[in-house]
TrEMBL record:
It is found in: Cell membrane. It is a multi-pass membrane protein. InterPro entries: MetI-like (IPR000515), MetI-like_sf (IPR035906). Residues 73-253 form the ABC transmembrane type-1 domain. This is ABC transporter permease. Its main location: membrane. It comes from Neoroseomonas terrae.
């Protein structure tokens, strides 16, 4: 009986190991299949490179133009990181203020919604007038487009602390500041990290939008120059490099989340839980 139980436990452990290996390999397999289907479709239907280049043509362009891609991707990454860092600080502080006070919520939330509804590409020319073309318009556009999800999620996390818990803490002598710092902020951390994974992706959108309008470097500027020469493989190379940078930044946010708020999932390892925003 004991031998049968031991074999059953070993079988379950082996199945768990196989599942973990499959989960680790699955993103690579899906990505590889997507590029293979893309390559096959382009060759099968004879699509011209200036309409839709094959992955092989994009790879050739990346090898040919690796130095401009590296230089411009670093510029985009730097502006995006600066704008994203400002969004984290400002969004966290404003989210705490909105989630902690009904008066602040009533006063600021309509203004935030109205501002977030404004297309950021329309704000870029104003930023260029104020700061000139280059680094700061791109960084500020990344900031403007990414801070709103952080504000909303942090405010939601703090505002959803149960009223009964607040009453108990007040009865025990806790001040409003204590309730926010010791209960509200820990409660908001899963919401905060969920918003980071949304904000980091849209921050790249903001940087590239600004770089296509007014910049002399960056992936957006590179793609604009390439499209003016009808070098579509280089345009797609810029898109792929941007996607890779977004995945890397997302992975950093997930890694920090796992190390700081792993308690929030109570041991559940379903990655779909990390896709909220």
């Amino acid at each position: 009986m004991r031998g049968k139980a031991a074999r059953s436990a070993q079988a379950l452990a082996a199945a768990a190991r196989r599942r973990r290996r499959l989960e680790a390999a699955l993103p690579w397999l899906v990505t590889a299949w997507m590029f293979l289907l893309w390559e096959a479709a382009v060759r099968l239907f004879g699509i011209e490179p200036f309409i839709l280049p094959a992955p092989s043509a994009i790879a050739e362009s990346m090898i040919k133009w690796w130095q401009p891609l590296l230089t411009n991707s670093w510029a985009t990454l730097l502006t995006t990181f600066v704008g994203f860092a400002m969004a984290v600080v400002f969004g966290l502080l404003l989210g705490v203020a909105i989630g902690s006070s009904v008066l602040v919520y009533r006063g600021l939330y309509p203004l935030l919604i109205a501002f977030n509804s404004v297309p950021k590409v329309a704000v870029v020319p104003i930023l260029v007038i104020w700061f000139g073309a280059g680094f700061w318009p791109a960084a500020l556009t990344a900031f403007l487009i990414s801070f709103f999800p952080i504000v909303v999620n942090v405010a939601t996390g703090i505002a959803t602390v149960e009223p009964e818990l607040r009453d108990v803490l007040r009865a025990l002598g806790a001040r409003p500041v204590d309730i926010v710092t010791k209960v509200g902020l820990p409660r908001a951390m899963p919401y905060f990290f969920a918003s980071l994974k949304v904000a980091i992706t849209v921050a790249f959108v903001g940087s590239i939008i600004s770089e296509t309008v007014a910049a002399n470097e960056g992936i957006g500027h590179l793609m604009l120059v390439a499209s003016s020469r009808f070098d579509v493989p280089l345009v797609f190379a810029g898109l792929i490099v941007t996607g890779i940078m977004g995945v890397l930044m997302y992975w950093v946010a997930v890694t920090i989340e796992d190390r700081t708020t792993g308690w929030a999932t109570r041991g559940q390892n379903d990655p779909r839980l990390a896709a909220g925003g």
